[in-house]
Amino acid sequence: MQNGGFAVFACFAYGRQEIRAVRAVALKRCSAAVASCGGDEGRGAYVERKRELRSLLIVLSVILLVCLSLLYLRNPYRYDLVDLVKVESEAGTWDLTEVDFSNTVVQLMGEVEYVDDAILDPDEFDSADGVEVGSPGYAYQAATSRMRVLLPEERTYLIADSSIDFAHRLFVDGEERYAAGTPAETADAFEPGYGRFSLEVYAQGGSIEIVQQAANFVHRESGGHDGMLIGLPAVVHAFSDVKPAVELVTVGLFLALFLVHLALWTFFRSYKSNLVFAALCLTWAVRASVTGSKALYSIFPLLPWELAFRAEYLTLPLGCILVLLLIQDQFPHVMHAAVRRAGIAVSAAFALSFVLADTLWMSNALTAYYGVFTAIIVYLIVRFAQKVPSMVRARTLTTGQAVALFALAVFMYAAVHDALYYLGIYLFGVKSSLAEGAMLLFALFQMVANFYGTMREVADARERERRAEDERAALAEMNRLKSEFYADVSHEMKTPLTVIAANAQFAAQMLEAGEADGETVGDLHAISSEARRLTELVAGMVDVSRMQQGAARCASVDAGELVRDTAQMYRSLLARRRNELVVEVGEGVGEVEADADQLTQVLVNLLANANRHTLGGTVSVSAKRVEGGVRVSVSDTGEGIDGELLSRVFERSSSGEGRRSGLGLPICKAIVERHGGTMEIESAPGAGTQVRFTLPVPDETR
Questions:
Q1: What is the distance, to the nearest Å, from the Cα of residue 85 to the centroid of all Cα atoms in its chain?
Q2: What's the first-to-final CA gap in the chain, in angstroms?
Q3: What is the DSSP letter of 82?
Q4: Are 16 and 542 in contact (CB under 8 A)?
Q5: What share of the chain is helix, strand, coil (3-state, %, to 5)?
Q6: What percent of the chain has pLDDT over 90?
Q7: Tens-digit pLDDT profile for residues 478-525
Q8: Which residues contact 320 (CB under 8 A, 6 or more apart)?
Q9: DSSP per residue over 622-661, as a string?
């Protein structure tokens, strides 16, 4: 019974090994099936790449058209719509009497009359001390200026501009017409504010007088008192209203990109670029709405100044953090981890200070942050210059990465330009910020890059789904084979275990009664015989498991010598059944690459089968060199095999003997095939059996 328990344990161990082997075979077949379609897939991939390129060209063309259209509409110098004329003053007076205002807008530039460090009403200005002519500049914290404008006729005109500095009050011909915040000479009485104004004024007697009060205690820079637009109402509106409208469209584009990529991320969580890019678009939508013409004020005119100011400053470090995360996700080997962490940490520290610190400190700290930001940009330029050529040579630069790289180049150039512009350095003489336009271009191109990344994620998801389906099919096949295996084991072990149990019970009864006799001895012999058969069954199954795991240890083996030695070892067993052994080994049989132990096992199994089915006959073993390798043959003159069984002899459990496992020949055939050989059998009832197998020689194997 101990042998029976060991047999059950060994069978389950074998079952686990067989399941692993079947899984490997199933997956290998799936891979082979996919590989067999490689030609079609290759053609499909080529067609798909052509489609991608065509789509890319179309999308990029549309993006460029959109960007150029928005930049064109945003440009205040569109002479095809309205003529913009810049007129310089003379001692604070603008003589516009010769201007044809029918299709012209005049921008008032130049010097004004002003009193520094004073907030004066119009009637106080004439009697004030220290009236100067010039530009108040950036050194004052409070100032009052006066502008006289001479116009060609007495009629209604429109003046338009944004508020000066961070508190502004405007008087026209002595009447207060506009206020943003509260201008004051001291910080205690001062309240910041911002707004845009568009005021209709009547030129009584063909002239108007504009007095402006301005104060700034919250920012390191101050603005000039010139730059105001004047013209006929319809013409000025046609000119000045386009820019805020275009900026609102730009904000809308950023918000749309935010919503689209946030939705894409919810579907494909593994592609984090969509989430990072969505956050970046939202950040820049906020920035675009509170900078430039501050289009957000046209929607929320009562928006607190400080909230908009902090939001504008916060977008810079937050945008830098998001760009670094985006680069890390799309170009994982470009940045050093330490540099990335340092850049994110410094940007986060500035962002926190922009939330907590006072606005004057913020405006001064921004200069330092622009230095940090520029250093990060320079580092990225150097790293991309080092990495991209190798990516191009290795053909690892994807279409999406190439588009993203162009977008980053635009963004980084604009970032460096604006950092220098903020410090008073003008690249190529451009005296304006490029951030908004460049960021829009960057966002649209990055959208294309994310589109390709998302499509790749979709393709990967489909591939994972296909593999999962293959895995499920393999598991189903394993379950089927496992069920068959357990059924085979149950069938094979049921009879010997039943015999062992019955004979053990009879023997125990006889021994207890003290009546042991020859029948009792026979019962014990039967138990021993069945236990040995179970041991053979388990050993055969373990052999199959080892064979399926590919445990062969191949080396050069002299085939003729192995055949002679194995046959000689079995000669005595053949003699017990009065069988004659004949060994024939031809000249120059040569060597084979094989596991000598497994080949010996094959020969022993074949000799055992021949001996078992032959009584008083002849068992012949031969080995000879043939075309293609070495052929070994084991034949006998025994009882033979009938035709029905002959077709199934290499299948498991196909033995014609009810008390045999039927694993011998399947094991032999599997071992031979693992060595690159073939096995065949010939037999007829009463005419004996011949089993042949051929193994390739080393040269032919290679």
A1: 53
A2: 50
A3: S
A4: no
A5: 60, 15, 25
A6: 25
A7: 888 777 667 666 666 766 677 677 778 877 888 887 777 777 777 777
A8: 343, 347, 373, 376
A9: EEEEETTEEEEEEEE-S----HHHHTTTTSTT--SSTTS-
- b/e map 578-606, b = 16+ CB within 10 Å: ebebebebeeebbbbbbbbebbbbbbbbb
- Average pLDDT in the 566-580 region? 81
Q: What is the CA radius of gyration of the chain?
A: 47
Output DSSP code: residue 678: E
Residues in the chain: 702
Q: How far apart are CA 369 and CA 316, in angstroms?
A: 9
Query: What residues have CB less than 8 Å from 620, skipping those under 6 apart?
Result: 581, 582, 583, 584, 633, 634, 635, 636
**Residue whose tokens read 């399941």:** 19
d(CA 639, CA 688): 6
Q: Which helix (H) or strand (E) holds 219?
A: none
β partners of residue 635? 620, 690
The rounded distance, in Å, linking the Cα atoms of 6 and 20 is 22
Whole-angstrom distance, CA of residue 406 vs CA of residue 390: 17
**pTM of the predicted model as reported, rounded to 2 decimal places:** 0.57
Cβ atoms of 140 and 130 within 8 Å: the answer is no
The H or E element that residue 502 is part of is: helix 435-513
What is the arithmetic mean of pLDDT over 112-126?
91
Q: What would the pLDDT profile of 647-682 be if each residue is shown by its tens digit?
A: 778 776 555 554 444 567 887 888 888 888 999 998
What is residue 204's DSSP assignment?
Answer: G
DSSP H helical segments within 37-99, as ranges?
Answer: 38-74
Q: Given pLDDT bands bounded at 50, 70 and 90, which one contains residue 468?
A: confident
Look up residue 579 and give its DSSP letter.
P
Element (DSSP H or E) covering residue 121? none
The H-assigned helical ranges of 225-358 are 233-240, 242-267, 273-290, 296-299, 305-330, 337-356
Helix, strand, or coil (residue 554): coil
For 662, left (φ over 0), alpha (ψ -120 to 50), or beta? Answer: left
Distances (CA, A) of 333 to 328, 380, 391, 455: 8, 12, 11, 22
H-helix segments, 116-190: 122-125
pLDDT (tens digit per residue) in 585-606: 888 888 888 888 788 878 888 8
d(CA 16, CA 27): 17
DSSP 130: -
Q: Of 147, 149, 144, whose CA–CA distance to 131 is shortest?
A: 144
Do residues 214 and 222 lie in contact, with contact meaning Cβ atoms separated by under 8 Å?
Answer: yes
Instruction: Look at residue 325 in the predicted model and tell me its pLDDT.
Output: 93
In Å, how far from its chain's centre is CA 312? 32
CA dist 546 → 29, 188, 484, 670 (Å)? 21, 91, 19, 11
- CA–CA distances in Å: residue 441 to residues 438, 550, 614: 5, 59, 90
